[in-house]
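User: I'm new to structure prediction. If I give you an amino acid sequence, what do you actually give back? Let's try with this one:
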Amino acid sequence: MSAAAMRGGGGGGVVGTTTSACKRLRQLFSGVLSSSSSGGGSASGGSASGGSGDLLPPILKCAGALNAYTALQAHQAGFDMIYVSGGGVALGSMGHPDLGITTLDDVLTDVRRITRVVPPTTPLLVDIDTGFGTSQFAIKRAIKDMISAGAAAVHIEDQVLAKRCGHRPNKAVVSTEEMCARISAAVEARTDPDFVIMARTDALAVEGIDSALERAKAYVDAGADAIFPEALTELEQYKAFREKLGPTVPILANMTEFGKTPLYTGEQLKTAGATLALYPLSAFRAQSRAAAEVYAAIINDDGNARAEKELMHTREQTYAVIDYHAYEKAMDDAEGS
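Assistant: Good question. You get back a string of structure tokens that encode the predicted 3D arrangement of the chain. For your 337 residues, that looks like this:
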């Protein structure tokens, strides 16, 4: 671990570091899209480095992280990107449903904590729902604050302000014109030209595939760098988005569990034209089950001896994630000098 990281000086609020994270994300997108169009790259998986001659995975993989600790775990596991989910903030940090209740500051708190410890080589994508307000000024503030906090990208969606989870019923979307105005405001607010603005459309469930395709094209024309078509139900729909948008626009595939979209492999998604596979709440759902099992074991066993042996990370495994001993050594060295 670097001295800067030990001091808590990761990506958050550091303009140079934020810029490098944005550039890194652009390189990742460019590398995978170029590989796809040329038929090159590697189908072996692993993290994409984007350098000259480096092998690329069949698709970029982005892991949702509930907090800084799980973001470090995702980084160490080899994910290409980290994701802060609006649903994850609502559920994990606030304890309420993902129904547009969280605020910009709620999300920024988690973003800053993650970018302080995860290096910019693993860029951060952030869910900003509909932009955290009713005006373009609110959207512009959100973009500027996200860049200052160290994010490399955001996605903004075309649902109405009283939004719902993308995989739940009774969603409603704003007009294409209103969503394009949201995108234009986001683009205008960029203080870093490499910061990525991704547009999410929930129109498939509301208006059908033809409308969703037309919206996606309009959003790119309005300045969106990438497209997130939410809650697709078959691979052919990803192929339709790729055909509509051409070979250079990154397309995100949301592989959230227990949702509307089947859980495809990276190779299936890449063949269908997707660029990035998102796993927004996979770790959260596993952690939720693990916590429930540990709590039940302690109650049922009248103690935690079995849970310690069978259900927990050891102390040393936890220390390895945060490089605890390096911090401790730095303290010892400072006290001994």
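You can read the tokens as a compact description of the fold. Here is one thing that stands out. Residues 1-5, 7-16, 41-54 have pLDDT under 50 and may be disordered.
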